[in-house]
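Quick start: what a row looks like.
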Amino acid sequence: MDGDDRRVHCRTEMSAKVKVTHELLGEFVFSTRDISDGGVFIVVGSEPFSPEMGDKVKVQVQGLPVPAPVLDMVVVRKTIDGFGLRFGESVVKG
């Protein structure tokens, strides 16, 4: 493992549309860049989405033939192009 790379889980590139809901910032649709057993990275681009580290969000995959479950996630990483979200412990029915 690199000195700065503290990831525990292997990442897999995956592009999917996800709806991200933040209690104060509102609802947005972003694309994912990768996913792992621990979480997902969302590409924000120029959207006015700026949560704080540790903020909780709800995430739901879009464009499936049936509604996907809504997952509780936590903001754990910020980069110049997006955010790393860690899976929470509970699932909310969509």
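That is the whole record. DSSP finds no helices and seven strands in the chain. The mean pLDDT is 87.
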